[in-house]
Design brief:
The protein has 96 residues and is α+β, with helices and mostly antiparallel strands. The relative contact order is 0.19. The protein is built from four helices and three strands; from the N terminus they run H-H-E-H-H-E-E. Strand 2 and strand 3 form a beta hairpin. Helix 1 packs antiparallel against helix 2 and helix 2 crosses helix 3. The chain is globular, with a radius of gyration of 13 Å.
């Protein structure tokens, strides 16, 4: 598996999507980095503060953009309602 493939696929997918901002790109790149640091498991558990630290963004920005990336179909985000349980994030990787 090509380790950077999810990021390459994301950039191809967003090429003509005017809804995507530089912040969405930063969060997605941070998620790919976090995914790689944690063994390339899909889905992978992550607490928002872990991704926010990599992306250098605020909590409100993280929530807004991760929910939009989920809504737009670039990832699947299953939020945990418990502070002690990480949310699950699925990088959607189409077959090539």
């Amino acid at each position: 598996m090509e380790k950077i493939k999810p990021l390459k696929d994301f950039f191809c997918a967003i090429r003509n999507d005017g809804r995507i901002s530089v912040t969405h790109i930063g969060i997605y790149a941070a998620l790919v980095q976090y995914w790689s640091e944690n063994g390339y498991h899909n889905p992978f558990p992550a607490f928002c503060h872990q991704v926010m630290e990599i992306a250098k963004i605020s909590h409100a920005t993280y929530r807004k953009c991760i929910n939009e990336l989920n809504e737009y179909g670039y990832l699947k985000y299953v939020r945990s309602c418990k502070r002690t349980k990480a949310s699950e994030i699925y990088l959607l990787m189409p077959d090539s």
